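Q: What structure does this chain adopt?
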Amino acid sequence: MQLQNIKENAPKPRRVGIRELPEEERPRERLLAFGAQALSAGELLAILIGSGSRRESALELAAMLLSREGGIAFLADCLPEELAGIRGIGNAKAARILAGIELGKRLAQRRREKPPAGMDCALQAAQLLMPDMRYLKKEHFRTVLLNVKNQVISVETIAVGGLSSAVVHPREVFMPAVRKSAGSILLAHNHPSGDPRPSSSDVELTKRLMEAGELLGIPVVEHIVIGDGKYVSLKEAFLV
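A:
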């Protein structure tokens, strides 16, 4: 009983806010002094959070978010209400965090010129699409519409499936290409498991779509499967 009373009466450790840290250890000051690349993910997230709560500092809130299952990937596909409902976050902090995440996605997906079909084409397609598609929890099938100079016209989401597959029909694949007068298209889909190895159905679908593209005069120049930080070119791997 006496030990319990001692524990209950013991002073609780005082929370140290970011403003109480030495200036050279504060995330915002470190960013201004050394650049964003010098900061950890937790420090960058703390800057987006802005201020702490009654219980935790912004750095502690950032660490708590990054410790959730999926880590930083959790934030990439998080719904506003899901994030706002976490203790210490709320609507204002959730909005700042998600705005920062979305801005990063858009910068990573800036349109760029596409080279002729080949390994370089697959690589640049992966650079264009992977920042978003690697974190998707369901399988998405997308087409990249290219003009006659192999420049991106648009990226179209054709189908969204479950955890393992998305049903794709040739008419849905080529309809945007015909409507926007694309010279060729590039295909891409993700594997939510993170493993980009194509299935036999992926290979068969690619063959069907390439045949349809030849008939329509809109060639399929590549089909890539995106995993978590990895991709596979079906044209390179299977010579479809």
